[in-house]
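Predicting holo structure, 2-acetamido-2-deoxy-beta-D-glucopyranose bound.
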Amino acid sequence: MLAHLTSAVVLLGATLAATTAATVEPLSFAISATSQNVQFAAPPDANNATQIIAFLHAASTTGVAVNGTRQVSGTFAVTGSYCKPTTARVRGILQVLVHGATYDKTLWSGLGQGARYDYRGYANAAGYHTLALDRLGHGSSPQHPDPVAVNQAQLQLEILHRVLAAVRSNRSNRSNALGRSFAKIVYVGHSLGSFLGAAIARTYPADADALVLTGYSTAFTTAAIAAQTYAPGALFSPSRFGSALPLGYVVTAVEAERSRNGGAFYGGAFDTDVARADFARQDTAGAGEFASLPGLLLGGAGGGTAADAYAGAVFVATGQLDAAFCVPTAGRTCADILQATGESFPRARAYKYYAPADTGHVLSLHYSAPATFRAVHEFLDGVL
Ligand SMILES: *[C@@H]1O[C@H](CO)[C@@H](O)[C@H](O)[C@H]1NC(C)=O
Ligand SMILES: *[C@@H]1O[C@H](CO)[C@@H](O)[C@H](O)[C@H]1NC(C)=O
Ligand SMILES: *[C@@H]1O[C@H](CO)[C@@H](O)[C@H](O)[C@H]1NC(C)=O
Ligand SMILES: *[C@@H]1O[C@H](CO)[C@@H](O)[C@H](O)[C@H]1NC(C)=O
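Done. Tokens:
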């Protein structure tokens, strides 16, 4: 009994010590949005896992046929964590953090794997406010709309646009869950979150004063993603995801594939315990948010149209061993790929890239993470 009590006190002490660093305010935005989604020509049967996995595989290899568009509207609850700067040198700038596929907002605090991987903590210590969001259908997001027809990349783009407008507008706006407004906003994405950031620069160029796109380039290759084995979260881990989660929300199903050196997520120098925790703590990916990327966000072959009207600053950080975004081809290095990515932001007032060595796709969970965090903030401090 006494032993239990003592360990409870120790645990409480540890929790307090961890939270004095940054106060995490959970919040939820109520966002009304309308999107022109794509209509897939041959969508999978929502109750047939075999068809859903085949659809996802087709999306990451041959692509899936689209037959027109379909308008989707609704009010969506967007959950997030707001943290204030933890230093006296406060900057009135908000970083909005948007995770990639099979992650949620906890990616930005390193999935709880230690300060080395804590991007949010680094940003707060550098004087920035942060708002880490769960994309629709992920993390603590209460809604899990149809993962094929409704929860598509274009809808997520429209929702993010509305969140950015809400946090820019004054506190009397009921949509602004922050209760304060920011005149300067940095959009920070990872992977699918970076695709969405680049699309925001093309579609709503006034939304972000700076873009930080991590795990990203305009030379996206899908072989490493297609090589993963996927399974519906509801069948793979009903205790975590609930057996009622629509089958189109999938997880990577084989730990050795996900945490492998040279696979879609990891490469070079990283802690295998972190890669294992990443597998255990992964969130889902929606079949439709992935399958809808080519038509609506990439604007066709070759990585998409340019953000011609975007005048903010852009920083791209992508690992040299990123198996999806920095695969060298004959005569074209990772540095060449990231240099060329800058061409899709022709009017950006600054463009810079950073390519950490010995680092794979989920760069914030590699040993080089602190150097990446430093490079991002040196850039932001210089341009904002
Ligand atoms: C596309 O949609 C139209 C209208 O709903 C339908 O008539 C046509 O058969 C569809 N084509 C394909 C290839 O699915
Ligand atoms: C699921 O789809 C597959 C492939 O189309 C089909 O062979 C199978 O019979 C379907 N299963 C059920 C239960 O409908
Ligand atoms: C209030 O926030 C909503 C949601 O983003 C936005 O669409 C709207 O423009 C904002 N209103 C004002 C007056 O800024
Ligand atoms: C907040 O924004 C609304 C809509 O733009 C405006 O009518 C109102 O005066 C603003 N309130 C303050 C305190 O600035």
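The first helix runs from residue 2 to 21.
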